[in-house]
Amino acid sequence: MNDSGHSMRRQAQGPATQIGQGQSASRHDDPAVDATALNKWFGGFHALKDIDLAVAQGSRIVICGPSGSGKSTLIRCVNGLETFQSGAIRIGGVGLTRDQKQLRKIRREVGMVFQQFNLFPHLTVMSNCTLALRRVLGKSKAEAAGIALHYLERVRIPEQAHKYPGQLSGGQQQRVAIARALCMNPKIMLFDEPTSSLDPEMVKEVLDVMIDLAEGGMTMLCVTHEMGFARQAADQMVFMDQGRIVETAPPDSFFAAPSQERTRLFLDKMLH
Amino acid sequence: MSFDLAFAASTIPTILSVVGTTIGVALLSCAGASILGFSLEMARRAGSIAGYAMRFAIDFIRSTPALAWLYFLYFVLPHWNVTLPALVVGILGLSIYFSGYLAEVFKAGIDAIPKGQAEAAKALGLHRSDVVFFILAPQMLRNVAAPVGNHFVSILKATPYLAVIAVPEMLGRAFDIASDTYRYAEPLTVVGIVFLLLALAIAHVVKVLERKFLGPTGR
Fold first, then answer.
1. Interface touch A104/B121, C-beta < 8 Å
2. Domain harbouring B47, CATH code
3. Do residues A48 and A40 make contact, with C-beta atoms less than 8 angstroms apart?
4. Quick one: pLDDT band at residue B4, thresholds 50, 70, 90?
5. B93 CA to chain A: closest CA distance, Å?
6. Residue B73 Cα distances to A123, B83, B127, B172, B174, angstroms
7. CB B218 to CB A116 under 8 A?
8. Is B124 part of the contact surface with chain A (CB cutoff 8 Å)?
9. Which of B33, B39, B48, B183 has the most C-beta neighbours closer than 10 Å?
């Protein structure tokens, strides 16, 4: 992931960048996600500034912050949808690289849910769920269908399996998208504003599924403005602004007594 | 000089005797141009140096006359001891020439697919070729059915070029009749009508395929 164009900045990061170079196998006690001294530029725009974030296995982290603060960019770096110029990300101890084969291996274990659902419109709900099972994990058609149905039941939508995404409501589509990601049995789930493009009456059905997942022990990294969900499901809040992590705290103290003025201002706007 | 219907009718068997060549060349060239055009566009998207090379290849093909390709393949390749039958040269030439245009159509068809589609597929761990084959290509086909149909008609209408490398085809036959009888109106009109019917047939097939691809998702 390192780009020689920013080698000077990389040197300035010091020893932290060393962490990303090794390719040791995943160990049980490695953090699920470990970002160190992460920097990303979009052209001249410094989108992520010296991000350090460790996500313990089983942890549920909610990242919030104003738009343009870099929160989506950060979680898109975790599964390599965005590249970064310096620093390192390790997923279960394995460093993210540009190597396509290794990237695919990591993506198998990192599920992602998008703001726009991104279901495949030309495939049925069932095929949306089974495509990667068959093509990536090499499951048989019957086995893949069984797994898909199991997760469609878990998101309470098995009766829609034969339909196309365009025939479903937004909330149903997003639940299918969650089921599609879960089919791969990921170790980590990334949520990028999963309820932001939903009609208000459909937000709850998606959040309920996410809470259910959190209670099941899934490691989750969520970018969301749903503070109710954050209070209920998160064990760690991260507040970002202008490409930096401003504050990290458990939800209780984060909402009751944020330590940073910038966080307080943001929460004042969010919470009424 | 009046238009002699009886004479026109008498030219039909001669002209239709090579309609099979016209249809065969057109179909194979449509297939060749589609496969080559799609390959060029996918290689261009791979980025880096290959991407620039493909961009140049597409522009180069689109900037050169179809006749130049036919002459080149027919008269220049033999200098390197590559001598192909005229029919093969014709199919190859039209495939190459129209691949440049189809590559552009495919580009637009892929650009119209939301970026999130490829991202979601990649996030599932799908291989690049699977992303293309299972996610991008099917959605692209729905976007490009109409413009591709237009280009297929253009390929059909370009088959008379093959007369210059002595492939027997309809316009050439019509001209032979005209040279022998000094009557141009009748054979050329017959050729025009046959091309019109073939073009309408292509348009119909494309419409049927389009309906099939647009099918059940209702988009």
1. no
2. 1.10.3720.10
3. yes
4. confident
5. 35
6. 43, 9, 37, 20, 25
7. no
8. yes
9. B33
Token output for A63 = 């990242």
Domain total for chain B?
A: 1
Which of B117, B128, B217 is the closest to A118 by Cβ? B117
Classify A167 as helix, strand or coil. helix
Closest CA to B44 of B130, B113, B102, B117: B102
Is-contact A156 A209, C-beta < 8 A? yes
Q: Torsions phi, psi of A56, nearest 5?
A: -70, 155
ipTM: 0.86
Is B190 among the domain residues? yes
- The H-assigned helical ranges of chain B are 5-16, 19-45, 48-62, 66-71, 86-111, 115-123, 128-130, 137-158, 170-181, 185-214
Whether residue A175 contacts residue A159, with contact meaning beta carbons closer than 8 Å, is answered with no
Confidence of residue B163 (pLDDT cuts 50, 70, 90): confident
**Angle CA B43–A79–A50, to nearest 5:** 115
Q: Of B119, B130, B217, which is closest to A118 when you measure between CB atoms?
A: B119
Q: Is residue B199 part of a domain?
A: yes
Structure tokens at A38: 């992460």
Least confident of B15-19, B47-51, B74-78, B92-96: B47-51
Mutant choice from A135, A162, A185 vs B, greatest count of B C-beta within 10 A: A135
Q: Please tell me the least confidently modeled range out of A10-14, A60-64, B32-36.
A: A10-14
B142 interaction partners in chain A (CB closer than 8 Å): 122
Which residue is listed with tokens 């997760």? Answer: A151
A135/B130 Cβ within 8 A: yes
Interface contact flag, B139 A121, Cβ < 8 Å = yes
| Domain membership flag for residue B219 | no
Tokens of A100: 């396509």
- Work out the burial of residue B175: count CB atoms within 10 Å of its CB; fewer than 13 is exposed, 13-18 middle, 19 or more buried: middle
The number of beta carbons lying within 10 Å of the beta carbon of residue A213 is 21
- Token pair, residue A191, equals 């949520």
Which range, of A83-97, B13-27, B61-75, B202-216, averages the lowest pLDDT? B202-216
Distance CA(A102)–CA(A245), nearest Å, equals 28
Q: Which domains does chain A have, with CATH numbers?
A: 4-270 (3.40.50.300)
Cα angle A251, A256, A262 (rounded to 5 degrees) comes to 90
